[in-house]
Design goal:
Layout lengths: L1 H9 L34 E6 L12 E6 L1 H4 L5 E2 L1 H4 L1 E3 L6 E4 L5 E5 L8 E7 L5 E3 L4 E2 L1 H4 L4 E4 L6 E7 L3 E4 L5 E5 L1 E8 L4 E9 L4 H5 L2 E11 L5 E10 L17 E6 L7 E4 L15 E3 L5 E4 L9 E5 L11 E2 H5 L5 E9 L2 E7 L8 E6 L4 E4 L18 E3 L2 E6 L6 E7 L5 E7 L6 E5 L1
Parallel strand pairs: 3-31
Antiparallel strand pairs: 1-2, 1-32, 2-4, 5-6, 6-7, 7-8, 7-9, 10-11, 11-14, 12-13, 14-15, 16-17, 17-18, 18-19, 20-21, 21-22, 22-23, 24-25, 25-26, 26-27, 28-29, 29-30, 30-31
Protein name: DUF4374 domain-containing protein
Keywords: Signal
Organism: Flavobacterium azizsancarii
Amino acid sequence: MKKSTFKLLACGLVFTTFALTTSCSSNDNNDNTPPTLPETPGRWITLAGALMQTEPGDGNGGTKVFSVSKVDARNPNFSIDVYGKGSPVQSSRTARLQSSVDGSTLFNITYTGANGGEFMTYKVNGAANFAQSGATVNISQYAGTSPRWNKLFDGDKTGVAVNVATPVVVTNTDKSYKHTRGLATVVSLNMQQTLISAYKQYEIALTAQEEAQGHHLFRLDAPTLNKAGNKLIIGTWMRKTNPETGQNEATFDRLGSKSVIVDYPSLENPQVITSTVAFGDTSGFRSFNSFLATDGNIYQATQRDTKNGSYILRINQSNQYDNSYNFSLDTALGVKGSYIDAWRYAGNGIAYVLYTHADAGEQGFVARVDLNAKTAKKVEDIAYDPALDFGQYQGFVVDGNDLYIAVTPVGKDGNLYIIDIPTGAVTKGAKLINNPGNHYIGVF
């Protein structure tokens, strides 16, 4: 798993929200706040669960889905058993799912295995009835069998998959170290017609000084479209080669957080931008990691910085980091070693963060964040448990003023929670039936 591996090394689609009436945000009691997204009458609420393969919570045994009505989703006396009654979606490991805004369609790119890199859609018909589209497109020849991808917020029209081939050490003619680079790929997908719209491949260089020290891009993820609709901001996961040995360094002094900017829709002209505020990666893990906010700026979370914890960064409408904006989650929450597993922007400067911190092991928590005030507060109205791990969490649903989130500790039953966005009122919804070693990874 992502966090366990990292800790061993380091220590030796849809806008959503999650609210709390006691939060410090000035928007908490504003009953006139318009819905973040329109309400869809009769919308299906789809739950996704990841199956254990060898270790509890590894999620590598595949993914199953099951859909219910909003009425049933809100009913605490109704039970949902995705593992016993659900339908599998194509993926050898944990599927990376996205859904249409109205919940009628699931989008999936198969992750690893013989069918790795295949993009397909499923029509949501309720319960275990998911009709897979006849058309599929395989992008593995461009982006490998394990591409990372996001749906753009453009009316469910476009998905963007990204990948970096295994970085290779390059030496000078005298055999001295030169740099480490992998071939990066960006692919845009027409999600309505199930076809590749465009793709570009290139090596993405850092500065000469950074590359001489061994720093390089290990992974790309979480592409986001800017307000002007002419640039994609792509998150990065950084690594470092030891120039003397040619081997990766388990721990190293990190550079400032970086993103890659490419022209859209051409996908050309890759440029690297660097934050001087934070030092973590900006790739996220299994869900969206940056969002276009109401103010026209992009807000982006960081991960894997054991010294400073997670930050939320701001990228302005000139597609540069706004280094005057300094938002440390450690400082805002009063914790050490915070780690943002997943988060969602809600509108009007409010976001919700699924996080853990150094004193909690891998136990997950939910916090309400005010991006304008740079404040955060743990949401108390959740049934927390030491086995609650959001490390693979992917999906939230916003339908009108309602947020839906799945909360299940690994191997234990949990619940759907429905949050009224303007008021912060929390409703415990349907019971989520779990199996040993498994956990629910999202609502779609």
